[in-house]
Every structure is written in structure tokens, then in C-alpha cells.
Amino acid sequence: MLRSGQLAGSNLQLDRQCLQQAQASIYAASNDRVAGWQQQIELLGSTANNRPRIIQLQQQIRDENASAKRQVDQARSDCLREPAPEQPAPPSTGQADT
């Protein structure tokens, strides 16, 4: 029986690769955005007149982190989804199609 969070499926290695590729793609883009906002915060310093902008940037970072987590959760679900079973071929009637 699988525990919560375990990878399922007939090919565990492919499931892991799918998830790792999705995570790398999602987090690379997200981390780039967050790094840019963090750099802006550092440049603004902590002066009072910049405080509203710093708060806005910090909220953007929180939102971005939450969005990345949701995307990875969805990717995990997509990567672990069992493929639909193959449909059997229709029975042959013995007549040639014309």
C-alpha cells in the first residue's frame, strides 16, 4: 500500500524524472523572479519612505512561493496519474473491409 507522498505507477523512475523536470522548470523561473525582488528590497534599504514598496515586494515573494508550490503540487499529480488502460482491439468479424 502506498503512503501519502509516495510515487505510484508502473515505472517509478519515469514518475520521478517527470516530477524532477517539472520542479526544475517551475523553481528555476520562480527563483529568478524572487531573486530580482530580493535585490530590489536590498537596494531600497529600510528607509521609511521605501517601506510601502518593500512590503509590496515581500508580498510578491510570498505570492510567488505559494504559486510555485501549487504548480509543483499540480505537476506531482500530473506525473503520478496512471495512464488510461489500453482499449482492446475490436473483435474481427472475418469480413474484409471494402
From TrEMBL:
Chain segments carrying region Disordered: 62-98
Protein name, UniProt field: Uncharacterized protein
Organism of provenance: Stenotrophomonas koreensis
Amino acid composition bias (Basic and acidic residues), ranges on this chain: 62-84
